[in-house]
Design brief:
Blueprint: H1 2-31, E1 39-53, E2 58-73, H2 75-85, E3 89-99, E4 105-116, E5 129-130, E6 133-134, E7 153-157, E8 162-174, E9 177-191, H3 207-211, E10 214-225, E11 232-244, H4 246-249, E12 256-266, H5 268-324
Antiparallel strand pairs: 1-2, 1-12, 2-3, 3-4, 4-5, 5-6, 7-8, 8-9, 9-10, 10-11, 11-12
Length: 330
C-alpha cells in the first residue's frame, strides 16, 4: 500500500515539476497581455496656472485648468489589424479634453495608439494618429513593458509628434509601492495648433501662414512606474506653451504670448484609484510569472521527498523479515 502511494506521489511530483517551467516560459508570455477592451478615465489638474484669455489674447492667472483623459480599447479595430499583423494587437482611442476654470473647452486632442499587447511595442497601421495627423510612433507611450527595466526608454510625445529618450532616474516609493522614476525633458519645439479651439474661424492648417504666428511647446514629464506591470502609478508634467511672432504675438514682450503654463498632476482621488488598480494587476502578473511556478516547483520537491520517504518505509519491513528468516550462526 505504501509503495502504491509513493508511486502516486512520485507521479504527481513529476507532473508539478514539469508544469512549473511550462507555466513560466510557455503560458506566461502568451497570457500576460493588455486586454483589447480596456476603458479608463483620468482627471488631471494644473492649479495656479497661466492660461490665455482667447477673447482678449492676454495671459492671466487662473485657479485651475482641468484635463480629462479617456482611454477606450477599440476591439473591432484591433481584430482587423491582428488579421494582417499576425499577433495580438491593442488599439487605444484616447481623448484629452482641456477645460478652463469656467468649465469651458480650451482644446481637445484625440489620439489612436496601436501597439503589441505583450511587449507594448508600437504597431504601425492605418489610423495611427494624433489630432487627426498620421504619425509613426517609435518607442512607448502611456505604458512601459511588463517587468520594466531600470534603464532609459524611447518615449513618444504627442504634442511634438516625435520620440526622445526618457531617462531612468532611480527607485522611489509612492504610496507604499516600490516604483521606478523616469524623467523626460522636451526642449522648446514648434508644434501644430489643436484642431479644436475656443476661437471661431481659426483654421490650424493655415494659421501660421495667415497670421505669421507659430505655436511653441516645452515640457518636463515625470513618471512613477510599477516595474512589474509597467503601468505608471503617478505622472506629472510641467508644461509651457507660447505663441511667437506675427500679428497675434508680435506686440507681446519679446514677441512671445503665453498660452499655457502649469504643473499638471493627477487628481488625488484618481491617483488612489490608479494605485489600487495597479496593485491588483501586479498581484495577477506575479502569480503567473513568479508565485505559481515557484509554488509548483516547491510542491513537486516536497511530494518527491515524501514519495522517497514512503518508499523507504515500505522497504524496511521486508528487510527486517529477511533478516529474521536467516539461521543463527556462531
Amino acid at each position: 500500500m505504501r509503495r502504491r502511494a509513493s508511486l502516486v506521489l512520485l507521479a504527481v511530483a513529476v507532473f508539478l515539476a514539469a508544469l512549473s517551467p511550462l507555466l513560466r516560459w510557455y503560458a506566461y508570455p502568451r497570457l500576460a497581455k493588455i486586454p483589447p477592451n480596456q476603458y479608463q478615465e483620468m482627471v488631471l489638474e494644473a492649479k495656479d496656472a497661466t492660461l490665455v484669455d482667447y477673447s482678449t489674447l492676454q495671459p492671466k492667472k487662473v485657479d485651475k485648468v482641468t484635463i480629462v483623459q479617456t482611454l477606450k480599447g477599440n476591439v473591432e479595430a484591433s481584430k482587423e489589424i491582428e488579421a494582417s499583423a499576425g499577433k495580438d494587437v491593442v488599439v487605444w482611442d484616447t481623448l484629452s479634453y482641456i477645460m478652463g476654470p469656467d468649465g469651458k473647452m480650451v482644446s481637445q486632442i484625440p489620439e489612436r495608439y496601436i501597439f503589441d499587447a505583450h511587449s507594448q511595442d508600437p504597431v504601425h497601421a492605418t489610423g495611427e494618429m494624433v489630432d487627426g495627423d498620421p504619425v509613426k510612433r517609435e518607442g512607448i507611450e502611456f505604458k512601459w513593458p511588463f517587468f520594466t527595466e531600470p534603464r532609459d526608454y524611447l518615449y513618444f510625445d504627442a504634442q511634438t509628434r516625435s520620440s526622445s529618450p526618457i531617462h531612468y532616474v532611480g527607485p522611489r516609493k509612492f504610496k507604499g509601492m516600490d516604483v521606478y522614476y523616469y524623467e523626460q525633458t522636451v526642449p522648446w519645439t514648434k508644434v501644430a495648433l489643436p484642431k479644436k479651439m475656443p476661437i471661431e474661424g481659426i483654421d490650424p492648417a493655415t494659421f501660421e501662414q495667415v497670421t505669421g504666428t507659430s505655436m511653441w511647446y516645452t515640457v518636463k514629464a515625470m513618471f512613477w512606474v510599477d516595474p512589474v506591470t509597467g503601468a505608471p502609478v503617478n505622472a506629472e508634467q510641467q508644461i509651457q506653451q507660447e505663441m511667437r511672432g506675427g500679428s497675434i504675438a508680435g506686440s507681446a514682450p519679446d514677441g512671445k504670448l503665453t498660452v499655457f503654463a502649469g504643473d499638471v498632476k493627477i487628481r488625488e482621488d484618481y491617483s488612489d484609484a490608479t494605485v489600487a488598480l495597479v496593485k491588483s494587476n501586479r498581484t495577477k502578473v506575479l502569480a503567473l510569472h513568479t508565485y505559481a511556478p515557484i509554488g509548483l516547483a516547491a510542491a513537486g520537491l516536497v511530494l518527491f521527498g515524501l514519495a522517497l520517504w514512503l518508499e523507504a518505509r515500505g522497504r524496511r519491513p521486508e528487510e527486517d523479515q529477511a533478516v529474521q528468516g536467516q539461521p543463527f550462526s556462531a
